[in-house]
Amino acid sequence: MNQQQAFLGKISWRSPSNIALIKYWGKKAGQIPASPSISMTLSKSFTQCTVSYDFHSARLRSEVNLFFNHQPAPENFAIKTTDFIRTLETVFPFLCHFRLTVHTFNSFPHSAGIASSASSMSALALCIATILSRSGQLPADSDFFRTASFMARLGSGSAARSVYGGYSLWGKTPLVENSSDKYAVPLNDFIHPVFREYGDAILVVSSGTKEISSSAGHAMMQNHSYSEGRIRQAGERLERLLQVLKEGKEQKFTDIVENEALTLHALMMSSEPAFFLLQPETIAILKKIKSFRAHTNLPVTFTIDAGPNVHLLYPLRYRKEITGFIASELEPHCENRQWIDDGIGSGPEQLIDEV
Ligand code: DP6
Question: With a 6 A CB cut-off, is 311 part of the ligand 1 pocket?
Answer without folding.
Answer: no
